[in-house]
Design a protein that fits this description.
446 residues; alpha+beta; Glutathione S-transferase Yfyf (Class Pi), Chain A, domain 2; Glucose Permease (Domain IIA); 15% strand; elongated
Length: 446
C-alpha cells in the first residue's frame, strides 16, 4: 500500500511538470523572437546615436564655412538631418516599447495558462482529499485498507498541494507585475508619440526655411545688383509703412478703464516659451529709437530659435491669423496670431514661422499655438509679444484686426492687429515675476 501511495504521488508530479513544460515550449519560440527584435532595435538605436554625433560634428564645422546664405543653408540642412535622426530615434523607442509590451502580453498569457493548469491540478487534489476525509471507518475496513494507509495518502495529497499553491501565487504576482510594467510602458509610448508630433512639425518648418533660403540664394546669384536696390527700396517701404501705422494708431481715440484689466503684477499670463530670455523691453528703448519711426517698441521680444514652440499665455479665442509678408514683404509682423483673452487683455504673437491654430479656435493657457520664426521685420529669429487692453471706457474698442489700404505698399491692404496708442500695455506687468537671468542684458531688468 505504501508503494502504491508513492507511485501515485510521483505520477501527480509528472503531470504538473509536463503542464509547465508544455506551456513554456509553446511560448518560448515567440518570446525568443521578440527578444531578438528588441536586441535589433537596441542596435539600431546605437547606430542612430553614432549618426547623431556625426551630425553634431557637422553642425560645428558648418559654423566655420564662408558665405552667409550658403552657411545658412548648410546649417538648415544639418538641423534637418538632426531632426530626422531624432525622429528616427523616437520612432525606434516607440517600436522598442511596442515589442516589449507585446512580449509582456505573451508572458502574461503563458502565466495565465500555467495558473489555470495548476489550479485544475489543485482542484483535483482537493477533491481527492475531500473524498478520503468523507470515508467512514466501515468503508475503510470494507475496502480492506488500513486506516494508517488512508491517512498517509491523504497527507500525500496535502503535501503536494502546498507547492502547487505557492507556484500559483508566484505566477499571479508575476502576471500583476507584468501588467503594471506594460501600463507604464504604454504611458511612455504615448509621451514619445506626442514628442514625435512636435518633431515632425519642427522638421516641416526647417524644410520651409530651406525652400525659402534656396529661393533667396538663386535670386541673389542671378541679380545681386538688383537685390541691393530692392533692399534700399524695402527699407524705405518699411519706414513708410511704420509711419503710416503709427499715424493711424495715434488718431484713434481710446481711454483706458483700469478696472477692465487685471492689476499690474498679477501674473495672469504664463510665459509664451519654455526658455525665457528677454532681448528687448516694451516702450522707448535704445533699440526702439534706432529701429522704429515712432521711437517706441510696442511689445516685448524673446530670444527663440526658428521652430521653438510658442504657447498661449492665457485662455481665449483666436480672433485671427495672418502674414504681413503677403502684403508688404519684411515690413511688419510677418506671420502673426491675435488672441482675445478672457481677462480683458489681447495679445499678438509675431514673426512666427508657422501656425498651430486657426481663426475662431478656443485655446487654453499653455496650448501650443505656433512656432517661432524670422518673418516680417525681423533681424534675427525671435518672438515678439504685444499686449493690449481689449476695451476701454464705455466699451471703447482697443485691440482689433485692421484692414486698411496701404500707400507704402501700393495696391495692397495691410491686415494686422492694431490698437490706439493708449491701449498698448507693458507685457512685463502681467507675466510671471522675473530675475536677472531672464534678461539678455542686466540693464533690461530695470
Amino acid at each position: 500500500m505504501k508503494k502504491t501511495v508513492l507511485y501515485f504521488l510521483m505520477f501527480c508530479l509528472v503531470i504538473v511538470t509536463s503542464l509547465s513544460l508544455r506551456s513554456f515550449v509553446v511560448s518560448a519560440q515567440s518570446i525568443d523572437e521578440l527578444e531578438q527584435q528588441i536586441q535589433d532595435k537596441a542596435t539600431e538605436r546605437e547606430d542612430l546615436e553614432e549618426q547623431a554625433q556625426r551630425i553634431r560634428i557637422e553642425l560645428t564645422q558648418v559654423g566655420a564655412e564662408k558665405g552667409s546664405l550658403t552657411r545658412e543653408l548648410n546649417r538648415i540642412n544639418a538641423e534637418k538631418k538632426d531632426l530626422e535622426n531624432t525622429i528616427s530615434k523616437t520612432q525606434n523607442e516607440i517600436s522598442l516599447l511596442d515589442l516589449t509590451i507585446n512580449k509582456n502580453s505573451q508572458e502574461i498569457t503563458r502565466y495565465t495558462s500555467d495558473i489555470v493548469s495548476y489550479s485544475e491540478t489543485i482542484a483535483a487534489l482537493l477533491r481527492g482529499i475531500n473524498q478520503y476525509n468523507n470515508l467512514t471507518v466501515l468503508e475503510i475496513i470494507s475496502s480492506r485498507g488500513q486506516l494508517s494507509d488512508i491517512f498517509q495518502l491523504r497527507d500525500g495529497y496535502t503535501q503536494l498541494q502546498k507547492p502547487l499553491i505557492q507556484i500559483t501565487n508566484d505566477l499571479n504576482k508575476k502576471k500583476i507585475s507584468l501588467r503594471e510594467t506594460s501600463y507604464e510602458l504604454e504611458i511612455q509610448q504615448y509621451e514619445l508619440s506626442e514628442e514625435k508630433e512636435i518633431l515632425d512639425d519642427q522638421r516641416s518648418i526647417v524644410e520651409l526655411q530651406e525652400d525659402e533660403k534656396n529661393k533667396v540664394l538663386d535670386a541673389t546669384e542671378e541679380k545681386e545688383s538688383t537685390a541691393q536696390r530692392n533692399l534700399i527700396s524695402t527699407l524705405a517701404t518699411i519706414s513708410a509703412l511704420d509711419k503710416e501705422i503709427r499715424d493711424f494708431e495715434s488718431k484713434l481715440e481710446f481711454a483706458l478703464n483700469p478696472s477692465s484689466i487685471p492689476q499690474r503684477g498679477s501674473a495672469v499670463f504664463d510665459w509664451p516659451l519654455d526658455q525665457v530670455l528677454i532681448t528687448q523691453r516694451f516702450g522707448r528703448t535704445v533699440s526702439s529709437e534706432r529701429l522704429y519711426v515712432s521711437g517706441s517698441h510696442s511689445g516685448m521680444d524673446f530670444r527663440a530659435a526658428v521652430g521653438t514652440p510658442v504657447y498661449a499665455v492665457a485662455d481665449g479665442i483666436v480672433k485671427g491669423v495672418g502674414n504681413t509678408d503677403d502684403q508688404c514683404f519684411r515690413a511688419s509682423f510677418g506671420r502673426w496670431i491675435f488672441i482675445d483673452h478672457d481677462i480683458g487683455l489681447s495679445t499678438t504673437s509675431a514673426h512666427l514661422s508657422s501656425f498651430k491654430v486657426k481663426e475662431g479656435q478656443r485655446v487654453r493657457k499653455g496650448d501650443v499655438i505656433g512656432y517661432s520664426g524670422n518673418t516680417g521685420r525681423s533681424t534675427a529669429p525671435h518672438l515678439h509679444l504685444t499686449v493690449y487692453a481689449t476695451k476701454g471706457v464705455d466699451g471703447g474698442q482697443g485691440a482689433r484686426i485692421t484692414n486698411r489700404p496701404s500707400s507704402a505698399c501700393p495696391g495692397t491692404d495691410y491686415r494686422m492687429p492694431l490698437a490706439p496708442t493708449a491701449a498698448y500695455l507693458d507685457p512685463i506687468d502681467f507675466l510671471p515675476p522675473t530675475n536677472l537671468s531672464n534678461f539678455k542684458h542686466a540693464s533690461l531688468a530695470n
